[in-house]
Design goal:
Keywords: Isomerase. It catalyses: UDP-N-acetyl-alpha-D-glucosamine = UDP-N-acetyl-alpha-D-mannosamine. This is UDP-N-acetylglucosamine 2-epimerase (non-hydrolyzing). It is an enzyme of class 5 (isomerase). By secondary structure, this protein is an alpha/beta fold. It folds into 2 domains: 10-178 and 366-380, Glycogen Phosphorylase B (Rossmann fold), CATH 3.40.50; 199-356, Rossmann fold, CATH 3.40.50. 47% of the residues lie in helices and 15% in strands. The strands form 2 sheets. The chain has a 7-stranded parallel beta sheet, sandwiched between helices. A 6-stranded parallel beta sheet has the order 10-9-8-11-12-13, with helices on both faces. The radius of gyration is 20 Å and the shape is globular. It binds uridine-diphosphate-N-acetylglucosamine (UD1) and uridine-5'-diphosphate.
């Protein structure tokens, strides 16, 4: 791509996976409105199809697409490929600032490649900590590496800002902005009200399952591969034995997840294992479900905003705000605990009502504009 020869500072936003694309499309949009800077986007395509699914619902056409995904990639090969690919791209562009989001291999390598070139780094969704380097793995360490390098830390909440202060990050480098996922969610809910995005297959599925309580499921975490996913699958199988419920499970494209879930749940009439949904359709599932069973980070932030209880299939969470608000509960990957809490939500109305309250500790939908303001000010002043 030909980058304009201009005196305006260049800001490169780097992302590669589904959640980064969802959480960064509002930031890229906000930056694109700032005429004082050149807004450049670079995707590693650490995820190919799931990234494209998000790009397709936005107006963003990446300036650089490194197309780096390989089937069943290991952390070593992924990290090596992404670091080298981003490094080469930064050399070509010569930006004044790099923006990364969250905790993926792409985000960590984006920050590291920038650091190797002494380019300052902005971290969106900074300060999330579980204080356990194996849960989530490898994300907890990725976040700490990025936090060490960044000089602009966009903390979604006061809790995450406090974690950064505890690590002696200077106060003038921290901005509490809200989480950009709420910007994405609110924009998507509003668009869905203006235009019907519901996919025909999902609509037919909702109609076929009407009268049943829908439990939305997602699961993909690397630290759960093996026993964790096997236990989750066994809990889902037992839950699906009830006639009054149906599980809708858009299955992550990771082959390690698909193999276990297909073995355990394939052919069960009460389980709809479907392909990953595009974001507006996933939001429709969030809206339609009775509650969510998930190990996802983003879903823990979105479901409370829509008043949907979330059972979090992790031992720890770096997003304690949902738990504190009473809309999320940690159930780990213990089959009995998952079932106990799921049955409470299904059978105990008071228990359900106590968790099903709309609560949004994660932001007001303006995070991306705040982030763009700080970035712009630092570059033009
Ligand atoms: C990655 C992130 C994780 C994030 C998750 C979001 C790392 C180390 N992990 O995990 O933090 O929560 O994304 O979903 O960065 N695949 C496809 N098509 C796709 C996407 C994935 O086929 O569109 C398959 C490929 O075989 C790929 C595998 O899934 O090799 C794993 O993808 P990868 O990005 O390495 O890890 P995730 O488990 O998705
Ligand atoms: N999501 C989606 N389609 C799906 C499943 C999830 O658009 O079929 C969205 C979800 O709303 C959330 C994000 O993807 O915003 C979460 O991504 P994922 O669970 O892959 O990663 P994590 O949040 O755990 O990093």
């Amino acid at each position: 791509m030909e980058i304009r020869k201009s005196s305006q500072p260049k800001v490169v936003t780097i992302f590669g996976t589904r959640p980064e694309a969802i959480k960064l499309f509002p930031v890229v949009r906000a930056l694109s409105k700032r005429s004082s800077l050149q807004n450049i986007s670079c995707v590693t395509a650490q995820h190919r199809q799931m990234l494209d699914q998000v790009l397709d619902i936005t107006d963003i056409v990446p300036d650089y697409d490194l197309d780096l995904m390989r089937a069943d990639q290991s952390l070593d090969e992924l990290t090596g490929r992404v670091l080298a690919g981003i490094g080469q791209t930064l050399d070509e562009i010569g930006p004044q600032r790099v923006v990364v989001q969250g905790d993926t291999a792409t985000a960590m390598c984006g920050a590291l490649a920038a650091y190797y070139r002494k380019i300052p780094v902005s971290h969106v969704e900074a300060g999330l900590r579980s204080y356990n380097i194996y849960h989530p793995w490898p994300e907890e360490v990725n976040r700490k590496i990025i936090g060490t390098i960044a000089d602009q830390h966009f903390a979604p909440t006061e809790t995450s800002a406090a974690a950064l202060r505890k690590e002696n990050v200077p106060e003038d480098q921290i901005s509490v902005t809200g989480n950009t996922v709420i910007d994405a969610l609110l924009a998507t809910v509003q668009k869905s009200q203006e235009k019907d995005f519901l996919d025909a297959d999902l609509k037919a599925l909702f109609e076929r399952l009407s009268g049943k309580k829908i439990i939305g499921v997602t699961s993909h975490r690397r630290e759960n591969f093996g026993d964790g996913l096997t236990n989750i699958a066994a809990a889902l199988r037992e839950l699906a034995g009830r006639d009054d419920v149906a599980l809708i499970f858009p299955v992550h494209l990771n082959p390690n997840v698909r193999a276990i879930m297909n073995d355990a749940l394939g052919g069960l009439s009460n389980v709809a294992m479907i392909e990953p949904l595009d974001y507006p359709n996933f939001v429709a599932l969030l809206d339609a479900c009775t509650f969510m069973l998930t190990d996802s980070g983003g879903v823990q932030e979105e479901a409370p905003a829509l008043g949907k209880p979330v059972l979090v299939m992790r031992d720890t969470t770096e997003r304690p705000e949902g738990v504190a608000a009473g809309t999320a509960k940690l159930v780990g990957t213990d089959k009995d605990l998952i079932l106990k809490e799921a049955y409470e939500l299904l059978d105990n109305e008071r228990y359900y009502d106590a968790m099903a309250k709309a609560h949004n500790p994660f932001g007001d939908g303006q995070a991306s504009e705040r982030i763009a303001d700080v970035i712009e000010q630092s570059l033009v002043s």
